[in-house]
Design a protein that fits this description.
By secondary structure, this protein is an alpha+beta fold. The protein has 14 helices and 7 strands. The chain has 3 domains: about 90 residues, TATA-Binding Protein; about 120 residues, Endonuclease Iii, domain 2; about 120 residues, Endonuclease III, domain 1 (Orthogonal Bundle), CATH 1.10.340.30. α5 packs antiparallel against α11. It binds a DNA duplex through α6 and α11.
DNA sequence: CTCCAGGGATGAT
DNA sequence: ATCATCCATGGA
C-alpha cells in the first residue's frame, strides 16, 4: 500500500468527478474509489490537499531501487505524478476562467464551478464510454460503465475495496453483440464492438492521433461507428486535451439558445457551432463544461419533489436575458447535422 | 433539409 | 401497475 498527499489548490474533486466528463468513480464515505488507467486508488480531498491511497504500483523501475525506503519514495512520487496529471492540476485555471467571456451566463457558471477541472482520461476508455453515452442520461452511463468494468475489466483489490479497470479494446473486440447488449448497451452494442475491432486491429490508432490537428482528429473520430460530432468533441476534450472542443448536447443547446439567442426562433445547429467557436475561443471546452455543470446542478429550477430528476426543460436563470415562461415543447429544435 | 428507430432507467399517473 | 420522457447517431 502506498499513501501520498499532494497540494491541489483551485481544485474541487467532487465537482470534477460529478460534472459528466467521467463516470466510474464511486464515492464511499468522503473518498472516491476508482482507477486511473490500470492503477486502482482512492482519492479524498481535504481543503487544498488530496489524500491518495493505492495498492503497490506495478512499475518495473521501482524494483531497481535497492532499499525498501527508496522504493517507497519512488512509488509515492510516481503516484503523485499520475494523480496530478490525471486531474490536470497543471492547468492554469485562474487564467482560463479570467479569459471567459463577460456575460451573465458565464459569470454564474464560473462562480458555481470554482475548482472544476477538465481531466485527462485514457483515450480508449473515454472513447468507449462516450460511445455508450449516446441517448443516455448520466445515471445510465454510470451503470453501463460499471457493468462493463465488472464483467470484462480486471478486478483490483485496494485496502479491502474492489475496483475494476475498463476493459481493453482487444477484450471488447472478442465479445459478441449479445454480450454487450447484456450490459444494457442496447443498439450501442454494435457500435462499440465495431469500434473496438477497429482499434484492436490497428486500423484506428488512437495514440498516433494525438499529434493530429483538431479538424483532422475530429474527422478520424467521426469515422468510427457510433461517433458523431458531439461524442467526437467529448473525446477530444476529455482525452486529447483539446480545450477548444465544444460538445453540444441538449443541455448546452438549451443554455445557448436561452442565453445567447433569446427569442430568436431560427438558429441552426451550424450557427450555434460557429458562434461557440468564435465567442468562447481557445478555452471553449472549459466554458462548455462550466455552463453544462451549472445548468445541470446549479441553475434555479422549478419546484419539485425530492428525488425528482432535473430535465433540460426545467432550466431557469437569474440573468437579464432569462425567459419569463418556459419554451413550449413543440418549440424545441433538434440538433441537425452539417 | 426532415423524419424517425433505438433501449432502458426513471418520473408521472 | 402502465405510460411518457429523456437523448446522439445513422440511415431513409
Amino acid at each position: 500500500m502506498t499513501f501520498a498527499q499532494i497540494l491541489a489548490p483551485d481544485f474541487d474533486l467532487e465537482k470534477t468527478l460529478d460534472s459528466g466528463q467521467v463516470f466510474h468513480w464511486q464515492k464511499i464515505g468522503k473518498a472516491f474509489w476508482g482507477t486511473i488507467g490500470q492503477l486502482p486508488l482512492s482519492v479524498e480531498q481535504q481543503a487544498n490537499a488530496l489524500k491518495i491511497h493505492s495498492a503497490a504500483m506495478e512499475l518495473d523501475r521501482l524494483k531497481r531501487s535497492s532499499s525498501e525506503g527508496a522504493r517507497n519514495v519512488k512509488a509515492r512520487r510516481e503516484l503523485e505524478e499520475v494523480v496530478a496529471h490525471y486531474f490536470s492540476l497543471d492547468h492554469p485555471l485562474a487564467e482560463i476562467c479570467a479569459a471567459f467571456p463577460r456575460d451573465p451566463a458565464m459569470t454564474g457558471a464560473r462562480n458555481f464551478c470554482r475548482g472544476l477541472r477538465i481531466i485527462r482520461q485514457p483515450h480508449w476508455e473515454c472513447l468507449a464510454t462516450f460511445i455508450t453515452s449516446s441517448m443516455k442520461q448520466v445515471a445510465h452511463i454510470r451503470h453501463i460503465s460499471l457493468t462493463l468494468r465488472k464483467r470484462y475489466g480486471e478486478s483490483k483489490q485496494t485496502l479491502g475495496h474492489q475496483v475494476f479497470t475498463f476493459p481493453s479494446a482487444e477484450r471488447i473486440a472478442e465479445l459478441t453483440e449479445q454480450d454487450l447488449r447484456a450490459c444494457a448497451l442496447g443498439y450501442r452494442a454494435k457500435n462499440l464492438r465495431a469500434t473496438a475491432r477497429l482499434v484492436a486491429g490497428g486500423e484506428a490508432n488512437l495514440e498516433a492521433w494525438s499529434t493530429l490537428p483538431n479538424d483532422a482528429l475530429r474527422s478520424q473520430l467521426c469515422d468510427l461507428p457510433g461517433v458523431g460530432p458531439k461524442v467526437a468533441n467529448c473525446v477530444m476534450l476529455f482525452a486529447y486535451e483539446r480545450l477548444r472542443a465544444f460538445p453540444i448536447d441538449v443541455w448546452i443547446e438549451r443554455v445557448l439558445r436561452q442565453q445567447y439567442f433569446p427569442r430568436k426562433r431560427k438558429v441552426t445547429a451550424q450557427q450555434l457551432r460557429d458562434f461557440c467557436d468564435r465567442y468562447f475561443g481557445d478555452h471553449g471546452g472549459y466554458a462548455q463544461q462550466y455552463l453544462f455543470h451549472h445548468a445541470r446542478k446549479g441553475a434555479r429550477q422549478k419546484a419539485r419533489k425530492p428525488g425528482q430528476v432535473v430535465s433540460p426543460g426545467d432550466l431557469r436563470y437569474d440573468s437579464p436575458v432569462k425567459r419569463s415562461t418556459p419554451l413550449p415543447r413543440n418549440e424545441r429544435r433538434k440538433e441537425t447535422k452539417p
